Amino acid sequence: MNSFLRRLLPVPAWAALACACAAQAQPVGTVTQLSGVLVARSAEGATRLLAADSQIRQGDTLTTEGTAYAQLRFSDGAEAVLQPQTALAVTHYAYDAARPQADRIELGLARGGLRSVPGAVGRRNPAATLIKTPQGDLQGAATLVVSVEP
Q1: φ and ψ at 124, to 5 degrees?
Q2: How many domains does the chain divide into?
């Protein structure tokens, strides 16, 4: 924070502002292609409409509306295509190219369909990837197509 703001705001205010900025979820991927409406709901409940090149953050629940399709690319190079009427939660996403032991990806597919292709995490530690569905959990990374009926 620059010195102007520190002088302008009392200590508790700028401390809270600094904490709020740090608490924002880090980007874990981007929307690469989109046809239709894609909505992200953050873990805090804030919603935003996404477009091509929009960031995806840990904690987001992504929902394709109507007949929308969305292609996503995650920071480890993994890709996913969301089918229409899909709800996918990015529950946990940890990837650091220098620390493979810390890899962990957890997604929750509540409804709809998903096609995924693994990235670096899936290639170097398949067990670090988990997709939870109402029918059961899928662990391990492989190119897969998953559909969940509402």
Answers
A1: -95, -20
A2: 1
Query: Tokens representing 59?
Result: 């904690």
The answer to whether residues 58 and 93 touch, using CB atoms and an 8 Å cutoff, is yes
**29 to 1, 10, 67, 68, 70: CA distances (angstroms):** 27, 36, 22, 19, 13
Q: How far apart are CA 51 and CA 29, in angstroms?
A: 13
Q: Judge whether 74 and 29 are in contact, CB under 8 Å.
A: yes
Instruction: Write out the H or E segment, with its range, that includes residue 28.
Output: strand 27-35
Confidence of residue 150 (pLDDT cuts 50, 70, 90): low
Residues in the chain, how many? Answer: 150
Considering the domain boundaries, does residue 90 fall inside one?
yes
Average pLDDT, the chain: 85
Helices marked H in 2-142: 3-8, 11-23, 120-124
Query: In this predicted model, what pLDDT tens digit does every residue of 52-91 receive, in sequence order?
Result: 999 999 999 999 999 999 999 999 999 999 999 999 999 9
Residue 2 resides in a domain: no
Domain range enclosing 111: 26-148
